């Protein structure tokens, strides 16, 4: 007879959420370079970053670099899967869940650049399409400060 696992406590969930935010904003140092700041974890993982001279790809027009767009969307896909893994393993402690992320990595990433990367700031979000035992797939979006869709992406990640 199978018994349902006990979900983590409110305090443990708060520790996990804080650890996820710290991972995204501080421990993944490239995210610091991009300036990613978590806006919300649920119901949809979102980060925001401000336009800065270091992120410009086209010197004349001051547009956001395509590599920055790709990297931000890739980071979002991974973050959304981290949340999905945390939710899938509700009986695990924050430390146990955080350890699951050690093996995560991007397998495939496709970015569609829809408009020029113009704006004062940008918001990236992601949705998990499928979380399997070994691979997870996501769809991501990047909008500017006027909520104009700049780019979309789809990705697959190894999750175990």
Structure in a nutshell:
With 160 residues, the chain is α+β, with helices and mostly antiparallel strands. The protein has helices at 10-27, 29-34, 66-88, 94-100, and strands at 37-40, 46-50, 56-58, 63-64, 105-113, 121-131, 135-144, 149-158. The chain contains four helices and eight strands.
What attributes characterize this protein structure?
single chain; 160 residues; Thiol Ester Dehydrase, Chain A; two-stranded antiparallel ribbon; elongated
Give structural notes:
- The protein contains four helices and eight strands.
- It has one domain: Hotdog Thioesterase (Thiol Ester Dehydrase, Chain A).
- A hairpin with a 5-residue loop joins strand 1 (37-40) and strand 2 (46-50).
- It has 160 residues and is of the alpha+beta class.
- The mean pLDDT is 93.
- Helix 1 (10-27) packs parallel to helix 4 (94-100).
- The two termini are 27 Å apart.
- The protein is elongated.
- The strands form two sheets. A six-stranded antiparallel beta sheet has the order 1-2-6-7-8-5. It has a two-stranded antiparallel ribbon with strand order 3-4.
């Amino acid at each position: 007879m199978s018994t349902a696992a006990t979900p983590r406590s409110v305090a443990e969930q708060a520790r996990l959420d804080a650890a996820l935010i710290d991972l995204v904003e501080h421990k993944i140092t490239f995210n610091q370079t991009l300036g990613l700041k978590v806006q919300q974890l649920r119901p949809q993982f979102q980060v925001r970053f401000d336009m800065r001279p270091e992120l410009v790809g086209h010197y004349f027009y001051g547009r956001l670099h395509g590599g920055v767009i790709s990297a931000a969307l890739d980071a979002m896909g991974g973050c959304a899967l981290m949340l999905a893994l945390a939710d899938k393993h509700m009986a695990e402690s924050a430390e146990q869940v955080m350890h699951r992320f050690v093996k995560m990595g991007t397998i495939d990433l496709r970015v569609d650049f829809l408009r020029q990367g113009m704006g004062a700031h940008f918001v990236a979000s992601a949705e998990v399409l499928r979380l399997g035992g070994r691979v997870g797939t996501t769809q991501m979006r990047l909008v500017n400060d006027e909520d104009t869709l700049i780019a979309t992406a789809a990705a697959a990640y190894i999750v175990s």
